[in-house]
Each structure stands twice: as C-alpha cells, then as structure tokens.
Amino acid sequence: MRNRLITVMICFGSPAALTAKPLEGLTFSTTKDPNHFKFVYQPDPEKDPVTGVLGLPKGIGPFRTVIVNHGPDGDALKVAYNYMPQFLDRGYAGLTVDVKYAAKPEESDWSEIVRRLNAVVEIAQNDERLDAKKIFMFGNGWGAMITVAFAAQTDKLKAVAVTGSGRLPKDGVKYEKINAPLMLVHGKKDESVPLDAAMQLKSNLERAGKTVEMKVFDENGHEVVTMKAQDVYDAVVAFFNKQAVK
Q: How far is Cα 21 from Cα 207, in angstroms, rounded to an integer?
C-alpha cells in the first residue's frame, strides 16, 4: 500500500483504532507496516509541524504508551523500526517524534525540543487507543539526555528509563523537579559514555530524593541496548509495569 496522508478516522491493525478521536491539527498516514502510522501535528500554525510515528501492539487498548527518543543520527522512522518493536512486542504502544539537534547535541534548542516532546505527550493523552495516565519515556545515548532533561519539565510521565545515559544539556538538569521514577541501564565497558557518568547521574538523582534503579551489564559497552536487547527491554518493561500499578 502506498503511503498517503489521511485524517485518522479509522486506522488498521488494532480494533481499538476504531474509537480514536484525534486532536485538531493532527493527521496520520499509513506506512508499509500495518501497525505503524506517521503523524503530523501542528497545534500552533505559526510554528513548524511536529512529525513522528505511532506504533500499536496487537490487541485492544487503551494501551500503556512509551515515548521513545532518538539521538542526532536518528529520526522517528528509524526509531519506529529499530527500538519501538521491542515495546510493541511487550504490549506497549510506542510514540516517537522527530527531534532537531544542533551540531553539538548538548547545545540544541532546548525550548524547541520541549515543545515537540510536549506535543507528543499531548497526543498520548488525547488518543482513546492510549491510556492517558500510563505514559512512559525511553531514550538511548543522546536520546537518554533529552529524556532525563524532559522528565524535569513535565509531570505527565509515569516512569522513565534510559540506556547509555550520563550526558546532559548545556544548562544541566533540575533534578529536584523530576517526578517520575527512573531506571538507568548501562554497559560497564561503555567507552562513549563511561559508567562513571551514569553513576554520577544516579548520585545526582538520589541526592535530589528521586526514585532511581540501575542495572549494569558487566560484559557490554555502549551497544548494550542492541547486544543485550532481550534482557534490556525485559528489565525496562518490568520496571514500567511495576510503576504502572502505583
């Protein structure tokens, strides 16, 4: 089926899709995968539209939803096919948004990143296929950086998990404003983001009185999210499930 832009009144791949009531300014288009839908959302006509991908698992919703953040070398569609399936296979819906990074990712326009992430949270809150009270966030590497930083900007996340974490935006993170429990997953042999950086992040969170769990894979490096995918996503989803019932 060729991709075409449509306003979502009926989507394919899940019976729950039939009850969706999209936000004004939100449109979806089909993709080659019957469970993936590209979206364009323009809540403010004077600003660039927010684009991304929604993935739905099998079954009937409303589904718990994971917002998955990418790094500067990725985009929403790559996330949809490389990271999101791990959550769909475990019964979670997935949302990912295209983020614009600067040449030095830590110096990116943070206000624009926050605008885009708030927009995708709004989508999750207003789609009847998704559980508005069970919204989670996940990121790896630079995607982990914006995940942790955004957690201090919103109270809409039930829990957060990151892999290869430890980098921070140039203005840092206001740890005391984070409400969501966090899980840090790291490879002990990570040379891109040394384990010490993740341990420092854990310490900063704990000093701010936040709930944080950490899982370290002794034999892996920065690629732990792919090399140990089964174990990593099992641990992350178990953490999310535990927080979902609180």
A: 42
CB atoms within 10 A of CB 148: 27
Place of tokens 């939803």: 65
DSSP-based three-state secondary structure for 189: coil
Could you tell me which residues are beta bridge partners of residue 138?
A: 68, 161
Angle between helices 110-126 and 142-151 (to 10 degrees): 70
Which pair of structure tokens corresponds to residue 63?
């589904």
Q: Between the CA of residue 48 and those of 51, 94, 196, what are the distances in Å?
A: 9, 22, 38
Task: Walk along the chain (246 residues) in steps of 10 and give the mean pLDDT of each run.
Answer: 33 40 87 92 94 96 97 93 95 97 91 96 96 97 95 97 90 93 96 93 95 95 93 98 94
Spatial distance between the Cα atoms of 151 and 177, rounded to a whole number of angstroms: 8
